[in-house]
Amino acid sequence: MLNLAQARYLPMLASLAGLAAAFTTDSRLHRSLFGVAYSPDGVILPNCGATQSAVTKDMEILAQLTPRIRTYGCDCNQTQLVLQGIKDAGDVDLSVWVGIYINGNDTVYDRQVNELVDAINTYGADHIAGVTVGNEYILNAYGDTGTATGANGVAARTELLKYIEKFNYTLQGLNLNKNIPIGTSDAGAAATVELCEAIDYYMANVHPWFGSVEYAGASEWTFNFYEEFDLSVCAKSTRNPTMYIAETGWPTESMDTKNAVNGAKSPASIEGLQTFLDDFVCAANSNGTNYFFFEGFDETWKEQYGGVEPYWGLYNNNRTLKDITIPTCLVDSPTGSSDPTNSSSGSSSSNDNSAAEPMLAISLGGMLAAAALGVAAGF
Questions:
Q1: 3-state secondary structure the chain
Q2: Could you confirm whether 247 is annotated as catalytic?
Q3: pLDDT tens-digit profile of 237-260?
Q4: Is the pLDDT of residue 16 over 90?
Q5: Which of 135, 177, 278, 300 is most buried by its number of CB atoms within 10 A?
Q6: Does residue 271 have an active-site annotation?
């Protein structure tokens, strides 16, 4: 039986063994997506069930597709799971825009923030590139018949900015050695000059499927919509926030025949996803559009909403790649790393063009041997 002196080396051995055991890369994957939207399985209250091994595997996959991911909330320990997963996968090169879910209930907001602060205190902020307060909070307030400038939209914006200001106060109190931008994500039509004056970045959901266009013209529609309703709007603000497409993609199937095609009679299909990948990704990478492809994996919990909602992933829910070909136009990492399996020092800056500081090279084999000797000798 190990004594206490020996036992203290076990976490070191486990951690170093994880770093030393590089995962097997998939030749079908290419780091060509600027960013990918991600939610672990099992992070919707009250049904928390996400496991570390599953999230770590997701990090291994995503790091081969992109250097950036965005999440939607902090419930069910998901931020901690993601940061630990990045570490366990071998400190892969992933920068995370962490989401804070809000619904107007202060208890929900406080719960999210407490989880995020705990994650930062535990893992640091190297891999955190931004904090997104709210997702479609304004859209949910004005609904299908209102607008962002109507009474409900303005009231929601006012409330949202209070949460952002409150979180900024919390963030500054952590006295981190880096600047973490704070923004929000909402519908593509929810951007206003007033909102953009108060945030570091804006993420716009721009979905050609819901724009009722054919998949053959989906890429062009996405660029045009984003330019008209988001880029040109926020460019009028003196803050000039960094702009992202928060979600864009194409569903591959539907739970029912009624929703199997959109308003343009274009089907949810593998062919539609492949066409959008081919037409949008490399064009966006070339013209400087910041985007998060929606999404990494199908989400079965969305079956409660019916239609196409569960089927937006590049991967099926069982983590098998759909019958698609990933484009090969590679993107730059915000850390400056060209190796998805090694992030060096993680996301060291909010500027996507910045390079990370190099880390001191350490022999993992030597460290493992030293730790093992410590256990054997009882040091």
A1: CCCHHHHCCHHHHHHHHHHHCCCCCCCCCCCCCCCEECCCCCEECCEECCCHHHHHHHHHHHCCCCCEEECCCCHHHHHHHHHHHHHHCCCCCCEEEEEECCCCCHHHHHHHHHHHHHHHHHHCCCCEEEEEEEECHHHHHHCCCCCCCCHHHHHHHHHHHHHHHHHHHHHHHCCCCCCCCEEEEEECCCCCHHHHCCCCEEEEECCCCCCCCCHHHHHHHHHHHHHHHHHHHHCCCCCCCEEEEEEECCCCCCCCCCCCECCCCCECCHHHHHHHHHHHHHHHHHHCCCEEECCCECCHHHHHHCCCCCCCCCECCCCCECCCCCCCCCCCCCCCCCCCCCCCCCCCCCCCCCCCCCCCCCCHHHHHHHHHHHHHHCC
A2: yes
A3: 999 999 999 999 999 999 999 999
A4: no
A5: 135
A6: no
Query: Could you tell me which residues come within 8 angstroms of residue 115 by beta carbon, excluding any fewer than 6 positions away?
Result: 74, 75, 77, 78, 79, 80
Cβ–Cβ contacts within 10 Å for residue 158, how many? 10
Catalytic residue among 194, 214, 227, 247: 247
pLDDT, tens digit, 9 for 90 and up, residues 313-366? 999 999 999 999 999 999 999 998 877 876 654 444 343 433 333 232 333 344
